[in-house]
Amino acid sequence: MGYSRCNLILTYRGNKPLTSLTVAAEDGETDIFGTQVSDLQTSVNVANGAITGTLKYYSDNSKALVQDWGAGNFLAVKFTNIDADATSVLVGLEPSASSGLVELIDDPDKNGVFKVTDKNTQKFKVIQSCTGSDGSTYTTVQTYSLSGLTCETS
After folding, report:
1. Which pLDDT value is given to residue 1?
2. From the CB of residue 59, how many other CB atoms can be counted at a distance below 10 Å?
3. Range 5-150: architecture per CATH
């Protein structure tokens, strides 16, 4: 009987088929959708199930972020240590103002920017999935509180 790496991980990790990927604040000099991350946030940190720091109020009507989602507070994050056997990595805010969770697996930059509309009710979520050789899907979920963010107003 052949085993995929995912099944071997299941065997040795006690039904935890995927390693937790790393979520971190995107670098300030990074450009996302024509906007420099330092224009969106300062001192953002991801640790212990929480995202903290300051999200600036961003309202530049000439930029895609504002044109597509309206002015507001945007969180820019990057993702590393994605499990090599992951078949899907969904990331985003729940509840979401518009896009819901988005697929990250084919994103060459492995980063994203998300509009925070209510830091007290929204959570940042990462769902990583793997298909075992038996056809079953195994999933790990990481959830981060946003209540420690400071969201500047206009």
Report:
1. 38
2. 12
3. Sandwich (2.60)
Residues 6+ apart with CB under 8 A from 22: 79, 80, 81
Task: Report whether 133 contacts 3 (CB < 8 A).
Answer: yes
**Domain layout of the chain by residue ranges:** 5-150
Strand 41-47 and strand 111-116: the pairing is: unpaired
pTM: 0.85
pLDDT in tens, 29-38: 999 999 999 9
* Helix or strand holding residue 10 (H, E): helix 5-13
CB contact burial 61-89 (16+ within 10 A = b; e otherwise): eeeebbeebeebbbbbbbbeebbebbeeb
pLDDT in tens, 36-95: 999 999 999 999 999 999 999 999 999 999 999 999 999 999 999 888 888 899 999 998
Alpha-carbon span 102 to 9, nearest angstrom: 25
CA distances from 55 to 38, 45, 115, 124 (A): 10, 11, 10, 14
Question: Tokens 């895609």 label which residue?
Answer: 64
